[in-house]
Structure formats: C-alpha cells, structure tokens
Amino acid sequence: GVAEDDVRTACEPEALKRAFLDHLLYTQGKTLEIASHNDIYLAVAYTVRDRLLRRWSHTSSRHKRHGTRTVAYLSAEFLIGPSLGNNLLNLDITDALRETLARLGIDLDELVRREVEPGLGNGGLGRLAACFMDSLATGEIPAIGYGIYYEYGIFFQTVVDGWQVENTDKWLRFGNPWAIHHPEWGVEVKLGGYTEHYTDDVGRFRVRWVPEKTVWGTPFDTPVAGYKVSTVNTLRLWRAEATEEFDFSVFNRGDYLGAVNKKVTSENLTKVLYPNDESHQGKELRLEQQYFFVACALRDMLRILEHRGLPVTEFPRAFAVQLNDTHPAIGVAELMRLLIDEYLVPWEQAWEATRATFAYTNHTLLPEALERWPLELFKSVLPRHLEIIYEINRRFLNEARIRFFGDESRVFRLSLIDESGERYVRMAHLACVGSHAINGVAELHSTLIKEQLLPDFYAMWPEKFDSVTNGVTPRRWVVLSNPGLAALATEALGDEHWIRDWPRIAGLEKHADDAAFIERWQRVKHTNKRSLAALIRDETGVVVNPDSLFDVLVKRIHEYKRQHLAVLHIVTRYHRLKTQRATDMVPRTFIFGGKAAPGYVRAKLMIKLITAVADVVNSDPEVRDLLKVVFLPNFSVSKGQCIYPAAELSEQISLAGKEASGTGNMKFAMNGALTIGTMDGANIEICQEVGAENFFAFGMSADEAQRLLRSGYYPRDLYRDDAELRAAIDLIRGGFFSRGDAGLFEPLTNDLLNEDRYMLLADYASYVECQDRVDAAYRDARQWSRMAVLNCARSGRFSSDRSIAEYARRMWHTSALPDTGHG
Ligand code: 26Q
C-alpha cells in the first residue's frame, strides 16, 4: 500500500505541507494568517486521516479478497484517548510532520498536547478495548470494533471546595476529524411492542415482531492504524437517530411538534455514556443502548457477509464475536433471532452457529456489578428476545437435568432466569450458554470465576473456561507518554524492535547495574517528575517537590479499591510527624486521581476525605515538604500519559479477590514504578514476573480474606488493639480534617468500625509496615532505580500484543493477515 502513495497521501515533507495547506483552505476555509488553533489542528488531523484512509482502503480490499475470519470486538466502551500523536507514531510520520509544520511556524507537539480526547468509556474496561484495537491492528489481525458513538462521554470532573462536581463532556463541540460518518450503511433497529405467531403462506410457523418504535442507527468509522504496518482496521461506533418512515407517518397526521419530539426521543438513545462502572442499575435506556449497538453490529456483519457473496450459514467462519463483559450479551439472542426469524435457519443449526461465533470475557466478580434485567422491563423492550431466551433456557436446562441427574437445586442456579425473588434475566448466564469460550482477565480472577462465580457452568463445561491476562499497548503507554524512556531503551537495546515486541525490553536487565545507565534512567524519571509537578501546579496550585517520592494512586474511586486505606496511611504519617519528631521520614508526594460515579455517595465522600486531608497537611508548616497530598482532577487517558511516566510508587491496594485484573498496574510497571500492592488481580502476576524482592506486597491473600470473613470479622477489635490505627481513625472522625465537623466522614468511619466490607482494618498494619519498607528502600537511590529498571525490563508479559495473540489462537482461531505487497 505504502508504495502506491500518490501525491495526496505521500509522506515527504513537501507533500505533507501541500496537504496541510490544502485542508486548511479547502476544508476549513482559512488561510494561515487567520486560522485558529482549532482550524490548524483540524487541517493537520485531516492530513493524517488521508494517509490512514489510503491504507484503510487497501486493508479492506485485502480482507475481502482473502475472506479470512474477522474479529468483531463488541464493547459498550472504547476509551481511545487522543488520536493525533498515536496516529503519527503508528504511521511513522511524526518527525516529517513536525519539521514541515515548524517551517510554517506551527508547533506540532502543542497540537498533540492540546487535543481533547473522546471520553467514550468509564475506566479499565473501555481502555482495555482501546489497547486491544491497537494490538489487533499492529498484529495485522482483521478486526472491527463495534460500539456506541455517545454524544456525551464520561463527565468532566472538577473539584469545588474539595467535592467532585460533574460537568458535561460535549466532546464533539469542535468537530471530530478522525471519524467518517456513513449514513449509507444505516440500519433500522426495532424496540418494544409485541410478537405475533402465525403460519406463513407455505405453512411454516413464523414469528413477527411488531415493534412499538424503531430507531435508525448510522456508523461513525474511525480508522485504527497498526504500528508501522500497512494494516488499518476500523472502530465502528453507532449513533441513533429517528427513522424516516417514522417521521413521515407522524407528519402525515399533521403532528409536526409530535414528530420532532419523537425524533428527539430517538436521539436520546446514544446521548450519554452511563457513568457508573461496577454497579449495575436496571435502567431501560441502558438496555436499549446495549441492544441498539449490538443489533447494528450484527446487521452490519450480515451486510459484509452478503457483500462478500457468502451465505448466512458462513457467519461463524467469517466472524469471531468477542463480548466485552455482558454489556453486549444480548447479541446471543439477537443472532438467534436473525437466523431463525429472518433467515429461517432451523433452531439447532442456528444455535450451533451462534455458539461457534461468540466468546465472552468477564471483568468482574462483584455481585452488584452483574447485569440482571427485571423480566417485565426486559419484555417491554425486547419481547421477541425474551421468548428466544426462554427457549434457549428450556433446552439448556433439559441438558443440565440429564448431566446433573436429580440435582434440581443446581438447575435452579444455572437458569438464565433468576427466580429467587423478583424475576430477572441473568446476562452472564446468557453469555456463558451462548459462547464457546469464557475467560477471566487475570489468573486469580479466572480461578475465582470457575470456583465461585460460575461453578455450575464450570462443572458442566470445564473446557470452555480459559484465562487471558490483560495487557496494555506499549505504543501509547511508553513510546508516546515517555519519550525519554523510549529513547533510552532504543539506545540500550540497539534498535526499536522492542516497540512491536515488548518482551525484548528484557534486554534492559543487563544494564541494571551499569552506573551510567542508571544515571540516565534517573534523569529521565526526574524530567518526567518535573513535568508532572508543573501540571499539578497549573491544575491545583499546589507546589510539589520533584525530589520527593512520587507515590501515585489513580483509578476509579471505589470502596473495593480502598483509596481510603491510602488515606489512613497518610494520616498515620501525619500523626507521627506531629507526635514524634519523625524527621527521618522520606519526603513524599501522594498523588490521587479518579472519578466517582455521580450517584455513589460514599465514593464522593472519599474524594472529599482526600482533599480535606490534603488541605490540612499541605498547609501545616511543621510538615514542611515531608508530606504533600494532591488530588489531580479529571483523571483521563491524557492525564494518565503525564502521570505514569513520573510515578515512582504505584498503589494497587484493592482487597484481594476484588480487582479482576487492573491495567494501570501494568502501565506503572512498564514506566519503571515499583508497586505496593495486594495479591489481587494481575498484581500477583506482576510480582511473579518482577520478583518478590522488587515488589512491595502486603495484606491478606484472597483465600485468607475469605476465611477471615467467614470465621467472623470484627474490625472494632482491630481498632481497639492498634494505637496508630485508632489515632488515624479518631483524627478523621473527630473532625480534625473537617473544621470540627465530626459528622462529615462518619458514613466512612462508622462503616470501617462496624462492617468494613473491604477489610481495610485487617490490612492496615501490614500496609503501614510495608510503606516503612518503601521508605527504607527509597533512601538508597541507586538500589531503588535498579529495582525500577528491573520492573520495566520484566514487564514483557503485560503488552496487549501478548493478550491479543492468546485470544487469536485460543478463542478466535484467527491469525495475522500481513500485507505482503503482492496483492
Ligand atoms: C453496567 C450496567 C449499567 C451501567 C454501567 C455498567 C458498567 C459499565 C462499566 C459496568 C462495568 C463497567 C466497567 C467495568 C470495568 O472497568 N472493569 C475493569 O475491567 C478492567 C479490564 O479488564 C480490569 O482490569 C479491572 O480490574 C475491572 O475492574
């Protein structure tokens, strides 16, 4: 493809300049003299997009010609982050474009820095989908990501008086140059209504779904380039609008305002991303969103199949559909509906095809996060799907009765319908039954799925259960975010192969004892810390010391992630400083970031606790620069890119057994931060890889935590018996951090003393003791940096390239389709 670059898409400086100026004038309608920052950004983006599209059209025709299996990654979230820098990197035109623009007086790096990112995801799950899209393209695996083109992404967080305030994220305000709208590939999606069973004119039993309403879905395609390969895959996100017939019918009745109103209602469907992760609420609009994008995706796959001249029975050979959690699990029933009702495929054959098509990734064990839809609600939105689910369930339970002869309680537990109280559809059960493969996202998590979450399914189909440990893309999380480290790695390793083959980073290990290398490593880290300090000053006004230990906890705010355990530790340090002249303490800067779901009152109070402690500690002259606490507002992909490279200590302190994997932990390790963490999620594997001597492990194991909980857990006893813990909790609940308002943090402190579901008090002593060992280790800067280098060098397993290779081989049965240049 690249060889055929024409005058429009060539990558030499002259061609880039021509293209940029053309777009500025003919797309933006501006000359350089009057162009705004946004005009220039858009013209640059269009210049880059042209080059993506040239490769994209080659990739599409190659995929069509070869007819290999395409991965369809279905996800309600894709948290892709800013695009410009990443596309330049993957197209390998950063330097050429930087030079070209510099000659026109334009600073490319500033354009990259100021890009506003689409926040089309909540956190880990959405970001994982984005890393996977990068690795799929880099691995040249034919793939399409399917999701929702939300008009409003995750809210923009500000902090007012220490409290989180949510602001709307109207990310499309200045235009989105990366996506191309394709109204011609629009599809109609039915919702609500009822079904009619009838016999057709040739005597077949048929079902007709008579919907209450229909909406029109149209795709926005974002090209996703692989790193220095010609493959460009597609991220296809769907937007809902009113159907035309629908409008006409109302117009004809003369109800103009009514018609406009219905149009608005249709558009509501993809208006906003639900900002709560890990807590499911049975909201009708959310179910409609899920069905909407899945119905669009499957219709689109059928269109592609037809375009390739293949019959519908070839569906599983043409597509491997991966369900990113249960959010798209309705796809199982939808594919069945399409095959049975519309293509008249017999049930058994349709079911076999469906199972061969789908695979399901679980991302959580938390009971409150498992999706269940009240039966009545489900029926009112998807009446036909409920019938199909009943039939899937009837056949499945008959199979289970034979397999588990006489064990009706097991059949009850396996059912797709929860009948223990109010009746619900269990989406995880639907996903399990309808998939040929089910996986967790880290070793421990996959074990717990088999033993605790879905033991009855595991007993029935042990061969379906698998584990694929998450990974993150080293392109964004090292090369783009940490250019200093990237340059050092390339120099030390002699080439850039590590960028596409991350395990080669192991080659840094032999430099871990080389004083000159360590010195350069430290300079890189220090530079990154200075940039983060500048960002912190700009955003919060707090001045932090770049020579202090940067101790970072960034992730969604949740009780199970235990940000308040970190606060207890900080308060303990503060208490030591005030009561003992603890002058030998290592100066630390504690950096927090993360969003709380707007309706999650406790999590918002945890933010207030962090900022309240920060206010007191930061302004106490006695503390000097031994302790600084900052809450950096609006943690996002862009913020992450500034934070991970500057971090020295990565806080991964969830209660063991609660964090499915974590992926921030991997970004930190790759950037040479040491982890202080529990034996939870992928922390366990990170500890294994980097070596226990280079990892600060603390707290109970998942087993120990469960045993303690079962044998009777009394947090108040721990409070009574540990003077430092008591002092910390008493300072908080006595109102010391809330101007005497003793009631403010009571919901948190009372809970810790009485229930403490996430067992902070049980892990507190171990955590504080471990933090003391961190201090001791940090005092020896050479030794600390050595450990940091080893963390990076031994993070080879945590590239999403490895995760994708495992999915491709074990669940998708698909492989790379590289561009040989020979057609
Ligand atoms: C569900 C129903 C209704 C509304 C919202 C939701 C919803 C939305 C987002 C439920 C869950 C999420 C996100 C979950 C998530 O991010 N999980 C994280 O996934 C990461 C990638 O596998 C893991 O590393 C984390 O451990 C896990 O918490």
Automatic annotation (TrEMBL):
Carrying N6-(pyridoxal phosphate)lysine, the residues are K667
CDD domains reported in the protein's UniProt record: GT35_Glycogen_Phosphorylase
Could you say which EC number(s) this protein's record lists?
A: 2.4.1.1
User: GO annotations under biological process?
Assistant: glycogen catabolic process
Q: Which reactions fall under this protein's catalytic activity?
A: [(1->4)-alpha-D-glucosyl](n) + phosphate = [(1->4)-alpha-D-glucosyl](n-1) + alpha-D-glucose 1-phosphate
- What molecular function does GO assign, one term? pyridoxal phosphate binding
What is its cofactor?
Answer: pyridoxal 5'-phosphate
Q: Does the keyword Transferase apply?
A: yes
* Pfam families tied to this protein: Phosphorylase
The protein's UniProt keywords, in alphabetical order, are: Carbohydrate metabolism, Glycogen metabolism, Glycosyltransferase, Pyridoxal phosphate, Transferase
PROSITE patterns (alphabetical): PHOSPHORYLASE (PS00102)
According to its record, what are the GO cellular component terms?
cytoplasm
Protein family: Belongs to the glycogen phosphorylase family.
Purpose of the protein: Allosteric enzyme that catalyzes the rate-limiting step in glycogen catabolism, the phosphorolytic cleavage of glycogen to produce glucose-1-phosphate, and plays a central role in maintaining cellular and organismal glucose homeostasis.
Q: What is this protein called?
A: Alpha-1,4 glucan phosphorylase
Provenance organism = Verticiella sediminum
Lineage summary: Bacteria, Pseudomonadati, Pseudomonadota, Betaproteobacteria, Burkholderiales
